[in-house]
Amino acid sequence: MSHLANQESASPPATIIVIFGASGDLTARKLAPAIFNLSQDQLLPENCFLIGVGRSPMQDNEFRKYLKDSLDQYSRRKIDEENWQKLESNIFFHGGAYDDPNSFNQLEELILGLEKKLQNSAQCLFYISTPPSVFEPILENLGESGLAKRHHGSGFASKVVIEKPFGKDLESARKLNNIINQRFDESQVFRIDHYLGKETVQSLLVQRFANSIFEPVWNRNYVSCVQITVSEEIGVGKRGGYYDKSGALRDMIQNHVMQLLALTAMEPPSSLNPESIRDEKVKALKAIKPLSLKGQNSEVVRGVYTEGLVGGEKATGYLNEDGIPEDSFTETYAALCLNIENWRWKGVPFYMRSGKRLAGKASEIAVQFKRPPGILFGQDERFSLAPNLLVIRIQPNEGVTLYLNSKTPGLETKLQPIQLSFGYETTFGSNTPEAYERLILDALNGDGTLFIRGDEAEISWSLLSPILTYWNEQKTNGLENYSAGTWGPVGADKLLLAKGHEWITGKDYK
Ligand code: BG6
């Protein structure tokens, strides 16, 4: 059963967390802080060990210091010294090449040694947080060494968490799934999309299915369009080498944005069982019509930022960023118009966009309802009848706002949109767990609700791979420029205008 059905998660059995890519950025910024915050909240098992694996050798003590420094820098809470000292002696480092079977045999020795010390068996969580180029050898060696199929009685005692990107197109995602399926049972596999671990994303399911007022209007009879925006102010920073091979479609749309879409569009699941929820997401994704890519009816837009001002600071253009080849045609912005061909959504466009160096950081789902008939109000220009909007703010300023039309005070009848707002921080205070805390805890507990199932990843790629192929053929042809600090290329506005809509996020409704 999903953790969504429980008040609290149970503590998992004795555990050894093995992180591949232990000296990498993600371990320092996200994984180590998540693990130690879980420990601080006493959500980790009494006996919990951490083995970092990396290509360059490191002494255990060096690795411990590296993690401690990372915690001081990135943890959302100050780490309790007493707790750290307890944990420190349970941290080890194992150096070795990812394609060397011997290194995996040594890793197994290390695991067996810890179990001996415990006088008990432990579950192993293998967390693959390396560059994608070594996912395959790691998975293969976990299989060959037997680490993938460790057992406790009749149950599996190994789990594997795989970081994004899960493939770079449909073919590579299928290949990765095949490698995984030959070595693991799907119940052991946890494909990460950190957006699913965000508190507000989980709460989307609660908003939709724990309130009765939304379901009757959540369909083509009342909804005029759905807009999903994941915009960032940051550029590619030091990640130019990775980003240029990826681009906005692979980096953000294929995973984070498609997941937000699936949760918004899916039918109510029959239970909170992880498979029921994932089945419904898959059904919604399968109903999406292939996109038109060419000419007047194109449903895709891509852009790249040129220099501009972001938050008052000068920002350089993408082609001048470190590590970007001068003939690059990678998109830093993508917008799509998707059509979900099912009973609920036929005829309702789902607009999605994501980009770097935009005018603001915002992840939002905006549901725009149809305008009321202009019989009583609306025929006269004093009554500007705005459509009702439900805006679900994933980050920052997490919350939900409903826009309604109201009469302005005064003797004359005038209308104005007003907001009914709920803010997470105002209501619940700050210091909510980070996405990675939720996800690591769920993986330890074997709860796959907030992870991508193999078929989900493939369906998402099958929709987007043709776009990538087309853009690759077109090179710079059709790649629009936008100045850093704006809301993206003009083509993205035209995409909506063609259907009588405008982007909501970034527009001032006050
Ligand atoms: C990552 C992308 O998956 O998500 C990054 O690779 C992006 O390019 C990041 O910046 C955004 O995550 P968040 O949680 O800051 O919205």
SSE diagram, text form:
Elements lengths: L14 E6 L4 H16 L7 E7 L5 H15 L6 H8 L2 E5 L5 H18 L4 E6 L6 H10 L6 E2 L2 E2 L1 E5 L7 H14 L5 E3 L7 H11 L13 E9 L8 H26 L8 H13 L13 E7 L1 E3 L2 E3 L17 E7 L9 E7 L6 E8 L19 E7 L3 E9 L7 E9 H5 L6 H10 L9 H21 L4 E5 L6 H8 L13
Parallel strand pairs: 1-2, 1-4, 2-3, 4-7, 7-8, 9-14, 10-19
Antiparallel strand pairs: 5-6, 9-15, 10-13, 11-12, 13-14, 15-16, 16-17, 17-18
Helix pairs in contact: 1-2, 1-11, 5-6, 6-12, 8-9, 8-12, 9-12
This protein binds 6-O-phosphono-beta-D-glucopyranose.
6-O-phosphono-beta-D-glucopyranose binds next to loops.
CATH superfamily of the largest domain: Dihydrodipicolinate Reductase, domain 2
What's the shape?
A: globular
- Helix/strand-derived category reads alpha/beta
Bound molecules: 6-O-phosphono-beta-D-glucopyranose
Might you state the CATH topology name of the largest domain?
Dihydrodipicolinate Reductase, domain 2
Uncertain runs are none
Strand content: 15-25%
Number of strands: 19
Could you estimate the helical fraction of the residues in percent?
Answer: 25-40%
Q: What's the CATH architecture of the largest domain?
A: 2-Layer Sandwich
Tally of separate helices: 13
In angstroms, what is the radius of gyration?
24 Å
List the domain count as a whole number. Answer: 2
What is the name of the CATH class of the largest domain?
Alpha Beta
